[in-house]
Amino acid sequence: MRPQPARLLVFACSMLLVVTLAAVMLIEPNPSTRLRDEACTQAQPLPKQEVMPSARCLTRQRAFQRRVQAGQPTLRELLATESAFDVRQHGPDQPAPVTAILNIWNRHTLCRQLDALLGQTAPPAHIWVCVFGPSPLFEAAGAAVASYNDSRIVLLRSRHNLKYYGRFQMAMLAPTPYFHVIDDDMIPGRRYIEALLHVSRLRPPHARRP
Fold first, then answer.
1. Is 68 helix (H, G, I), strand (E, B) or coil?
2. pLDDT of residue 31
3. Average pLDDT, stretch 117-136?
4. How far lies 85's CA from each of 76, 82, 89, 92, 191, in Å?
5. Is the separation of the CB atoms in 165 and 181 below 8 Å?
6. How far apart are CA 17 and CA 39, in angstroms?
7. Sequence-ordered list of residues with C-beta below 8 angstroms from that of 75, at least 6 positions apart, any chain
8. pTM (2 decimals)?
9. Cα–Cα distances in angstroms (integers) from residue 188 to residues 21, 32, 112, 123, 191, in the given order
10. Would you say the C-alpha torsion 192, 194, 197, 201 has a positive or negative sign?
């Protein structure tokens, strides 16, 4: 018995629908992935007025150097000074006693900050991502944090606008002896936390006197 043309048409349409849906599923990104990318990538370049020219950066650096008192040790000298902190005792399996607190508002730098903190020579024991108030990245920050699947990274968010002091209120709850508050326009270098801890635990003559 030969198949009827109507049945062949229905079968062909069904196969076309299956192929189309499969293609859409392959092309259409996961909603959580779209949210993560929203928190981590800048869709458009920043306006010129928001980008600090290199000449202005250099001017600020030179102005800061002029304010430094004569005779004060340089960072190179401080890092060469004996310290009670030993970076060799820390690593991915033995984090440093630091809680890193990230303050997120509208910059798309969260993933770069998290990657930089996880790649530290002295990685922090805890990373708290704070999103307070009507931030445009309120939902996206949650998707970005979830994508890491790392128990050290915790999302703290509230619709209530705690303004600039919310991050410091969270710092008072840090379970570690040290905490580091980072704005969303700063990406720490690989030895950043190592340098802070080294200098904070210097031995004489550069150690802080009581």
1. coil
2. 57
3. 93
4. 16, 9, 9, 17, 13
5. no
6. 34
7. 195
8. 0.72
9. 44, 26, 9, 11, 8
10. negative
